[in-house]
Amino acid sequence: xxxxxxxxxxxxxxxxxxxxxxxxxxxxxxxxxxxxxxxxxxxxxxxxxxxxxxxxxxxxxxxxxxxxxxxxxxxxxxxxxxxxxxxxxxxxxxxxxxxxxxxxxxxxxxxxxxxxxxxxxxxxxxxxxxxxxxxxxxxxxxxxxxxxxxxxxxxxxxxxxxxxxxxxxxxxxxxxxxxxxxxxxxxxxxxxxxxxxxxxxxxxxxxxxxxxxxxxxxxxxxxxxxxxxxxxxxxxxxxxxxxxxxxxxxx
Length: 251
Known about the structure:
With 251 residues, this protein is an alpha/beta fold.
């Protein structure tokens, strides 16, 4: 990728009115061509705040789910000609200043799927305020996923990711869940189709206004993640064909 790529930041939003402006203002504008925010039926003033910012806004008429929000984000980014798509949560947890490093990782061929990892170095997540139960579950689930894929990722459960256009055109993400496990399905799909992973260290902040999945939601997500790993293993061993790991059918 020699020419300057078109970089679009997508922000899947739900009740992010209090943190959106600060997150947006910390995006290094000289590296980003466009920002898209998809409001997934927020019950606060997220859409109203977004309309005051120089970004493209799409509003879901009702809450469709985190995965459904990302589907809208990526479809719109592809429609607008993005070469690199960066997903940044508007809740202020993740540092937008690493966006140039994520872009470089794709441009330099290190990977088509770049993670902003909270575990580089290993103790940084806890130092940033990650709850202990989230830390332990993240370590366990990432270990299982690495075992199934034969990878050595420091973290599979960051919500801060960058994708190449080629990856988004290849993996059948529209078949994925509309729930949080969408993120896990994307990882296994990318691995299934031979895309390489890269990681960039990122600092995080945990505070009251930042979005956070509940303990019950985390438990559900963990079980769903193990389910995706099991289905991927079944598919890879040829025991049964799983639709989300099959190539997209062209019209």
